[in-house]
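Lines hold sequence, tokenised fold; shown next:
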Amino acid sequence: MVCPFGIISQNNHQRRIVKCDRCPEREIPACVTACPTAALVYREVNQESMEKRQSVLAQLQSSTTQS
């Protein structure tokens, strides 16, 4: 994985990959802010899952009314 900020890197001494810490000093992680295609989103899990559930419910309701 390539990180433009050098956050994800390899620690050869511990033989591990060091992962992102989500920029604790920032409100939104730097990678999310800098993503040129807006492919990265930083949201609360509850908000994301509620929107997914509502989307699935709307699709189910739409498919039952078409039948």
The mean pLDDT is 82.
